[in-house]
Specification:
This protein has about 160 residues and is an alpha/beta fold. The protein is about 40% helix and about 15% strand.
Length: about 160
């Protein structure tokens, strides 16, 4: 019952493993359970990790969780949507890890942003690991300056 309380993503691989062990042998059953569990991990990581909110000339691109190399297309798509002349906030406050490929994408966007009239600011990760790698002004970690008010406050509440 403990697996059931942890949710179906834990319960189904457990039940499949036990049933597979009972109907085959130990090694094959564990192998089947690993494949099913791996399938749940892959499916969870393909869910949208990036949210995009646009209000007038303000845009927020928020990473909802850690960004791995598989999230590169989502990040690129969100950054391509930013209109010319906008003020962009890249919010990494929900991350503890950002793959270096994604850091390169963000830095590449920041490098070209002035040519499109885009002002970019960064809301860093709580641990402060990623923010120093990105070439944008830091507006706060853990919501200090955004939640205090200012032009980005309206975006903060709507991107959840």
């Amino acid at each position: 019952m403990a697996r059931w309380k942890q949710g179906y993503t834990q319960f189904i691989p457990f039940v499949v493993t036990v049933v597979a062990i009972l109907f085959t042998d130990l090694l094959i059953g564990i192998g089947i359970g690993l494949v099913v569990g791996f399938g749940f991990v892959i499916a969870r990581n393909f869910r949208t990790a990036i949210s995009y909110v646009e209000r007038e000339d303000m845009v927020m691109v928020r990473a909802r969780r850690d960004l791995y190399f598989i999230h590169k297309p989502q990040l690129q798509e969100a950054l391509l949507r930013v209109p010319e002349g906008a003020e962009l906030i890249i919010d990494l406050s929900s991350t503890s890890f950002v793959d270096l490929d994604n850091v390169d994408i963000i830095n590449g966007f920041i490098k070209g942003a002035p040519f499109r009239g885009i002002k970019v600011r960064l809301k860093g990760d709580p641990a402060g690991r990623t923010a120093p790698l990105i070439n944008a002004p830091l507006i706060g970690v853990m919501g200090s300056s955004i939640r205090a008010g200012g032009p980005a406050a309206a975006l903060e509440g709507s991107a959840a």
